[in-house]
Task: structure prediction
Amino acid sequence: MTRSSSLADSLSRVVSLLRDEPEDKEAQKSAFRALLVRLSEEALVVVADSDGRLLVDSEVVSTDVPGAEPLRRQLLSHGIAELSIPAGLSPANLLTVMRALAAAPGTFPRLQQLADHFTVSGIDGVMLGPPGRLSPIHPEIPPQEPSPESSRVELAGLGPDAVNEESVGLLHFVTMEMKSLGELDELLITLEQDPGSARVGDILNEVLSFGELANQKEQWTDLLRAAVTLIRQESMLQDESQRRLYSIAIKRLVNRRTLEKFAHLLQQTETRPDATTVLRRMGADSTEVLMQLLIAEQDVGQRRILFNAVTQMTEGTDLLVHMLGHDEWFVVRNVAELCGEMQLEAAVPALAKRMTHADERVRRAATSALARIASPGTFDPLRRALQDTSPAVRLQAAAGLEDARAKTLVPVLTRLIEEESHPEVQREMLHALGRIGTPDASEALIQASHAGRGFFKKKPVGLRVEAIEGLRLAGGPASKAALQDLEKDKDAEVSRAAGLALKSLMTGRK
Result:
């Protein structure tokens, strides 16, 4: 695609997004940035004629270019046959022009009104030409004599105060003084194309200059874009001296306040991946920021986003362990859950101490974390959890026993099943034996599935059925043989449960 075709397509996309998708700010920003980069420092002249042609900088744009015809029609709907945009137009002023072009037909009944609109917006140098008066800059389109109402209109600026955030709407695109995001994007593109350039030091200094301006103007998504570009390029470099240059630039670009703002950008789907990349790169500082935000956050959805972000951090885990001693119960609960999600073995001693916490919600979270970590040091506190005064904690402990790593708890489970008064906890203990699946666990389930002898020793049918489910989970020859015997049991419910469990094992379903 030629430069003229690319410019036509970019112009058309920006105009159509502003006109048809006013709520899609991220798509607008992306399209506008692309246009800024393509315009660079060169002037632009666009001609739309009634014969169906669109010309950009004297070159006819092919009708195969997707945006060519929509752009031509949109220009003519405003009575514009020629549009000239000068070199060096600021992003804010260019955005004003794009918004005017995207307006509905009839918004500016006369071309002079559109010109006046640009004038009061402080835009200088843009030129408009109506049908019947085209510039001789395009020799293939014969010039005509001008009329009083069809002469080309040149716009004069009224000073910087004419543009403000309300009138521009997307002033997010504008940096301070002489800086523009177009220049920033060019710098970032240069680094992406050649991260080890001989000019890398100078380019990084320029990026840092933009970063300072973006920080002052609180343009966090732009700062994030710069930071993630440096981080990605740093990871690709093999030369240690060049990596050090990037490392220094990243540390200067991203401070504590910036990390907090980036953490808030986790809440937006479109910025979450880049924010996560930067937060991971900044290590323990990021973990501390995320933890402080997590503690203060009341919204469940936002807390989950922060929670997930912390689990992706690779440094600062000592902070998590320290915070298990926090005075607030909900902080300890949240941190315990995080330790479990991260399977943080270093937290096991501190989690074990939390098993005596007064709040059962903390004990339940600590129990869940210990079960997920499942290292040798977790089983003694889990044994105590299986005997906790709270049924919810006992249930959590049994539910967390997932495989043969918990085999040392089989004798404890076997004894506690008979003593357990809560049906749900008893059921989960039987299922836990099945998930552990060792020979002694299967033997305990076989014994639990038997009917028992004598009126007072006869076992409840419900307990036997749950033991059968445990045998199904355990699998293996011993479990299959026991299920085959139980399929002949006199109790119809037990017989049916054994048959279904045996069928499940035969078909390979768990």
Remarks:
- The longest helix spans residues 3-20.
- The longest strand covers residues 44-48.
- The chain has a mean pLDDT of 82.
- The chain is about 60% helix and 5% strand.
